[in-house]
Design brief:
four-stranded antiparallel β-sheet; 9 strands; 9 helices; 280 residues; five-stranded antiparallel β-sheet; alpha+beta
Length: 280
C-alpha cells in the first residue's frame, strides 16, 4: 500500500511545476490572516490581481498567499501551517488554469452535455473539470456549478485524467449572466452634511476595497449573515461618511451577498443596521 504524500511534499512538487500553492486547514479553508492583517488592517495586498506571499510573516489573504517559491513554502511559518494542514490548495488563475467545480451528479450531467471534454478530477461530491486558460471566478453560475480561476483557490485532488483543453467561450460566458435571480435593492449612501471629498477617493482605492469586500462575502463558508454585516460595516466605516459610494458599488455588494443565499430584505436590513451602528 502506498503512503499518502505529506501536504508539504505535494506543495513543493506542484510549485516546481509552476502551480502556486497554499496550505488549507480543517474545513478546506485558508489559514486566517495574522494580527497585522486581521480585518484587512494592513490595507490588503497592493495588487490583488496576482498571487504571491504577503509581506507580513503570516500566511495571509487567502488565495493571494499562494506561491511557487520553495523558500517561502518551506519557511518556519509555513512549515508550522503544513503540520496543521489537511490538504493543499492552489490558485488556478495563477497557474493559467480554470476549474469548473461540479458539485453533484446533475451538474456533471449538464457539463457532459454542454461543455467540451477536458481533464477531470473526482471530488467528494462531484468533479473538477480543468481547462487551460484563466478567467474571472464566480460562484453559483448555475445550480451546483462554480468557476474557480483568478482571485480564487481550489483544493488539489490529484492530476486527474484526460487531456486538458483550451478554455472555451461557453465557460467564459457562464460568468456574464448574473447568478442571482433577485435584483439587488438600490441603496444610496448620501454624504454627511459638511463633509468634503473623500481623502481616499481614487478609483483604484475604492474599486479595490469593493473587490475585497465582494471576495470576503464570496469566500464565506459559514456564518454568512454575520460576514455580510461585518463586510458592510467595514465598507461604510471607510467610505460611508464622504458620499463616495454609488448605487453601482452597493449593487455589487448586494449581488455578492445574494449569490451566497441572502435575501434582498436581509441585505437591506444589514446595510441599514451597519449605517445605524456608525451613526450615518
Amino acid at each position: 500500500m502506498s503512503e499518502t504524500p505529506h501536504p508539504l511534499h505535494t506543495a513543493l512538487s506542484l510549485a516546481a511545476s509552476g502551480v502556486p500553492v497554499l496550505p488549507l486547514r480543517r474545513g478546506k479553508v485558508p489559514f486566517g490572516n495574522c494580527r497585522t492583517c486581521a480585518d484587512n488592517a494592513c490595507g490588503g495586498r497592493p495588487n490583488m490581481k496576482h498571487a504571491g506571499p504577503c509581506r507580513c510573516p503570516g500566511i495571509c489573504h487567502a488565495w493571494a498567499a499562494a506561491t511557487t517559491a520553495p523558500a517561502v513554502i518551506s519557511s518556519p511559518v509555513w512549515t508550522a501551517a503544513w503540520r496543521q494542514a489537511v490538504c493543499v490548495g492552489y490558485h488556478p488563475g495563477g497557474a493559467g488554469l480554470t476549474v469548473v467545480d461540479l458539485d453533484n451528479a446533475e451538474a456533471i450531467a449538464w457539463a457532459q452535455s454542454a461543455l467540451p471534454t477536458t481533464r477531470s478530477v473526482p471530488t467528494t461530491r462531484g468533479e473538477h473539470w480543468i481547462y487551460r486558460g484563466a478567467m474571472q471566478s464566480a460562484n453559483a453560475v448555475r445550480p451546483g456549478v462554480d468557476i474557480k480561476s483568478l482571485m480564487a483557490y481550489a483544493r488539489w485532488l490529484g492530476p486527474g485524467t484526460g487531456t486538458m483543453t483550451e478554455l472555451p467561450d461557453v465557460v467564459r460566458a457562464l460568468t456574464v449572466k448574473a447568478p442571482a435571480t433577485v435584483r439587488p435593492a438600490a441603496v444610496t449612501v448620501p454624504a454627511l452634511a459638511g463633509r468634503g471629498q473623500c481623502p481616499h477617493r481614487t478609483p483604484t482605492y475604492l474599486d479595490r476595497g469593493i473587490a475585497m469586500a465582494e471576495q470576503r462575502i464570496t469566500e464565506a463558508r459559514s456564518a454568512v449573515h454575520a460576514t455580510v454585516y461585518r463586510t458592510f460595516l467595514a465598507v461604510l466605516s471607510t467610505h460611508g461618511r464622504c458620499g463616495c459610494l454609488t448605487e453601482a458599488h452597493t449593487a455589487r455588494l448586494f449581488t455578492a451577498a445574494q449569490t451566497k443565499g441572502e435575501s434582498a430584505r436581509h441585505c437591506t436590513d444589514a446595510w441599514t443596521n451597519a449605517r445605524t451602528q456608525l451613526g450615518l
